[in-house]
Design a protein that fits this description.
Blueprint (H helix, E strand, L loop, with lengths): L14 E3 L2 E3 L4 E6 L4 E7 L3 H20 L2 H17 L1 H12 L3 H21 L6 E3 L7 E8 L2 E5 L7 H13 L2 E5 L5 H14 L6 E3 L7 H10 L3 E7 L2 H11 L5 E5 L4 E5 L5 H13 L9 E7 L3 H13 L19 H16 L3 E4 L3 E2 L9 E2 L2 E4 L6 H4 L6 E7 L2 H9 L3 E2 L1 E5 L3 H10 L4 E4 L14 E2 L2 E2 L4 H6 L2 E8 L4
Parallel strand pairs: 7-8, 7-10, 8-9, 10-11, 12-13, 12-20, 13-18, 17-18, 20-21
Antiparallel strand pairs: 1-2, 3-4, 5-6, 6-24, 11-23, 14-17, 15-16, 19-22
Helix pairs in contact: 1-7, 2-4, 2-5, 2-6, 3-4, 3-6, 4-5, 9-10
Length: 491
């Protein structure tokens, strides 16, 4: 299975600013996490490049916001069609720079396109309201307007889906965009912008700059300090999100922050265990466990604990680990050595504090997974709350199992975290469904379901998992503000 592109011009190695592809003196190397082989180099941008991107977006904003919503929708729909037309090449790019198996990468492209299509349709539905006037001779209305220039900062784990989920609603609302993709995975984002250029978006409407980990603060701080940037949308760690929120205060930017998670997955004694295991496999091991909504703490009732573990270990132990170009790979490499080191540290800490490895629990350096960034899919039993993996997001293929005995106990344990992005539980008791769903402190709850995300659903968290929503009709509203109009003297 080859990861070579059939359309080579989708491998972009320049910034895109004001409708032009631009070089920079400094360069950033992009490598394949499967074997750390170099792929290419992209710009290592500076604050100067960041400000040029804002100049272009600001200059394009007035014309873009005045473009009829139907015309904006047509352009976004054309972008969606091009993404689907080039699904195979985009999937190969994702696999090449991010490492996930090609079948999963193709699925991500379709998932990304679903958001583009959704917001193409939502562009024409940003309705306002007519408000009943309290006195005669007055008309009161509320209309929605785009916030202005949006700065989008995207993560490496879903390089197509995250940029689509942010840029599509911004463009649909009438905003213009400056974007900085993650330093590990800029190529997919650049390819998507190339397709947006081909779709016919006006110059300056969408701009992208790439930067290394070291120079990212310089780029982002330039946007934070610029009063012309009216919104920050970010997916990533909670510490970085807090920094963005603090720095946005000086210019009172609107923020959408989708931050860290520590998702509980609860299996009650009356659960369908086969369904629960299948749901956990989908939610935990997608993208090798490198998602913000992955279950990080699996709570299983004591009455069904052993049976559940036996079923889970059988499935986890059968997962195929290898590079994306191996057709039978189900788990690819982790994104880099830092990620593997963190996973190994969490497992070692858990074992030192009494956990037992039921399967996995080691780095892999042999067979199909010959490379530095592989870790075996792992199940740990006898997990406890004093372990690092209970309090810090592992972001890898590790499933720690905790026992519980009562509903009240597991609700308390599930909520005992500063985070609140996703939560899951399995039960066949209808009354318990509503009790538990309402008691969990989380922005997203899966009830007898492990696959949560959809373009029509609001995605986002509570507590230190951030605020704002992506996807759904609420996702468009996050890129708009409300203007109240009051006309008097009508009687």
């Amino acid at each position: 299975m080859s990861l070579k592109l059939t359309r080579t011009d989708l491998m972009r190695t320049q910034n895109f600013i004001g409708g032009r592809w631009c070089d920079t003196p400094a360069l950033l190397s992009v490598s394949n996490p499967a074997d750390e082989s170099p792929i290419t180099q992209v710009p290592d941008s500076s604050a100067v490049d960041a400000r040029e991107a804002v100049d272009a977006a600001h200059a394009a904003f007035l014309a873009w916001r005045s473009t009829p919503a139907k015309q904006r929708a047509q352009l976004i729909k054309r972008w969606n069609d091009l993404i689907l037309e080039h699904q195979e090449d985009l999937g190969r790019l994702i696999s090449l720079e991010q490492g996930k198996p090609l079948a999963e990468a193709r699925g991500e492209v379709a998932y990304a396109a679903s958001y583009v299509e959704w917001f193409a349709e939502e562009a024409t539905r940003s309705y306002g309201d007519v408000i009943p006037a309290p006195v005669a001779g007055r008309r009161m209305t509320a209309i929605k307007e785009p916030v202005g220039v949006v700065a989008a900062i995207t993560p490496w784990n879903f390089p197509a889906a995250m940029i689509a989920r942010k840029i599509a609603p911004a463009l649909a609302a009438g905003c213009t965009v400056v974007c900085k993709p993650a330093e590990d995975t800029p190529l997919t984002s650049l390819a998507l912008v190339r397709l947006a250029e081909e779709a016919g978006f006006p110059a300056g409407t969408l701009n992208i700059v790439t930067a290394s980990r070291e120079r990212t603060p310089e780029v982002v701080d330039a946007w934070l300090a610029d009063s012309r940037v009216r919104k920050i949308t970010f997916t990533g760690s909670t510490p970085v999100g807090k920094h963005l929120a603090r720095m946005s205060a000086d210019t009172l930017k609107k923020c959408s922050l989708e931050l860290g998670g520590n998702a509980p997955f609860i299996v009650f004694e009356d659960a369908d265990l086969d369904a629960a295991v299948d749901g956990l496999m989908v939610s935990k091991f997608r993208n090798g466990g490198q998602t913000c909504v992955c279950p990080n703490r699996i709570y299983v009732h004591s009455d069904v604990h052993d049976q559940f573990v036996e079923k889970l270990v059988a499935k986890v132990g059968a997962l195929k680990v290898g590079p994306a170009w191996q057709s039978d790979s189900q788990i690819g490499p982790m994104i880099n050595a830092r990620a593997v080191d963190k996973i190994a540290r969490h497992v070692e800490d858990a074992v030192a504090k009494g956990a037992e490895v039921a399967t996995g629990g080691r780095r892999i350096r042999e067979g199909a997974a010959e490379g530095p960034n592989y870790y075996a899919p792992t199940v740990l039993i006898n997990a406890a709350s004093n372990m690092e993996l209970c309090n810090e997001e592992t972001f890898g293929p590790v499933a720690p199992i905790f026992r519980f005995t009562t509903e009240a106990q597991v609700i308390e344990l599930a909520n005992d975290t500063p985070f609140g992005l996703a939560a899951y539980f399995y039960t066949q008791d209808v009354k318990r469904v509503w009790r538990v769903a309402e008691a969990l402190e989380s922005g997203i709850v899966g009830i007898n379901e492990g696959a949560l995300a959809a373009e029509a659903a609001p995605f986002g968290g509570v507590k230190e998992s951030g605020y704002g929503r992506e996807g759904s009709r609420y996702g468009l509203e996050d890129y708009m503000h409300i203007k109240y109009l009051c006309q008097g003297g009508l009687s």
